[in-house]
Amino acid sequence: MPPKIDVRGVSKVVRTRAGLVPVLDDISFSVADGEFVAVIGPSGCGKSTLLGVLAGFERPDAGMVRVDGEPVDEPRRTAIFIFQQPSLFPWLDLRGNLLLALNGASAEARQQLAAPYIALVGLDGFAHAFPHQLSGGMLQRAELARALMVKPEILYMDEPFGSLDALTRLRMRAELLRILSRERHTVLFVTHDVEEALHLADRVLVLSPRPARIQAVIEVTLPRPRVLSSPELLALKASLLRELGVDERPVPDP
């Protein structure tokens, strides 16, 4: 079966005040339909730039991205980008924000779709709450609901849980997995969190320091739900940390 997303030889140079900065260098990989792929690497290595190129918001300087065999040169209606910071309109309640995602649909269809997706992300009873009345985790659930309502084939997620506290992050990860078990989507997920990548993904791409190349690919074949303290996952965590230049073993006394 051909890949859902096919990335071949992608390179990208960014212009800054200091001059031209190579960010991505000859990146190639593919993603199967319905696969969850996490992207991790050092801070500033180009993870978000890569996601922007995949989603069609940025053009590569070399190489090609294809979705379903078609070149990507602009954002596609079949894909949704979820950012780290929630982007709900503050003057609309939760239901109003969700209905905006369905512009072009009939009023009746919009009304019928909103309630099930509010329930899907566990926000029953908050349909008429405004963004300032929702917690950080609730705002991210609302972002997910708004994205899923348009039934995207691909979700591009750029550290969507990065601004949340540790406990809320764990809950949001469980929530995302629950939703994805009910609705099939192909997911590209950028994160700094090693455990988050291993908890969620079928495969983890490790990027090198800038200019980013794919340094390693780690397959995560453990069944879900995954126990983060299991020996198998701890071994994968140690391997992933070594790829990132971190060794958790204690330093012997001199």
Give me the number of helical elements: 7
Q: Largest beta sheet: what is the strand line-up?
A: 6-7-8-3-9-10
Q: Strand fraction band? A: 15-25%
Number of strands: 10
Oligomer designation: single chain
Average pLDDT over all residues: 87
Estimated radius of gyration: 19 Å
Largest sheet: 6 strands, mixed
Point out poorly predicted stretches.
none
- Global morphology: globular
DSSP helix fraction = 25-40%
Separation, N- and C-terminal Cα atoms: 56 Å
Structural class: alpha/beta
SSE order in H/E notation?
EEEHEEEHHHEHEHEEH
Kindly describe this structure:
The chain has 254 residues and is an alpha/beta fold. The strands form two sheets. The chain has a six-stranded mixed β-sheet with strand order 6-7-8-3-9-10, with helices on both faces. Strands 2-1-4-5 form a four-stranded antiparallel β-sheet, with helices on one face. Helix 4 packs parallel to helix 5. It is globular.
Topology at a glance:
Elements lengths: L4 E12 L2 E13 L4 E5 L6 H9 L6 E6 L2 E2 L7 E4 L11 H7 L6 H14 L15 H14 L4 E5 L7 H17 L3 E5 L3 H7 L2 E5 L6 E6 L11 H13 L11
Parallel strand pairs: 3-8, 3-9, 6-7, 7-8
Antiparallel strand pairs: 1-2, 1-4, 4-5, 9-10
Helix pairs in contact: 2-4, 3-4, 4-5, 6-7
Quickly describe the structure.
By secondary structure, the chain is of the alpha/beta class. The protein is built from 7 helices and 10 strands.
